[in-house]
């Protein structure tokens, strides 16, 4: 189960209440910063933009690929550990606007996590250290450390133990050649 806070709304759908939940100028500033970061090929500059203007927590040596889209309204709810890779065109959401409510949730991505291209991470999700997310995955629940997951809906492909066994077998095979 994702860890989100729920806020109920009356009358119109929750997106009509957007500027009651987040200031217009914050969204405008975030839009400009995110668009600049999405297109820059300079990874250290992206990380600086995210840390400085969006107040995201980004670990050292983390790499955001081209076109990554962090949450435009609540980017400060995103934490990414050290030495992680966020693949091309990945979306990281910290909010959901629904008909009768909106939800906010922290997104925590651990150290040495690999997220494949075109993945979507929903609010309230924690991705454990060393996890691998296959390209095109909808991350709708927590990912245990060291697991390899993929698909829509997301499923565990290999547990941490199975991944370690495969790596040992690969190492043995490579050394026997």
From TrEMBL:
<keyword id="KW-0808">Transferase</keyword>
<dbReference type="InterPro" id="IPR001451">
    <property type="entry name" value="Hexapep"/>
</dbReference>
<dbReference type="InterPro" id="IPR011004">
    <property type="entry name" value="Trimer_LpxA-like_sf"/>
</dbReference>
<dbReference type="Pfam" id="PF00132">
    <property type="entry name" value="Hexapep"/>
</dbReference>
<protein>
    <submittedName>
        <fullName>Acetyltransferase</fullName>
    </submittedName>
</protein>
<dbReference type="GO" id="GO:0016740">
    <property type="term" value="F:transferase activity"/>
</dbReference>
<dbReference type="InterPro" id="IPR050179">
    <property type="entry name" value="Trans_hexapeptide_repeat"/>
</dbReference>
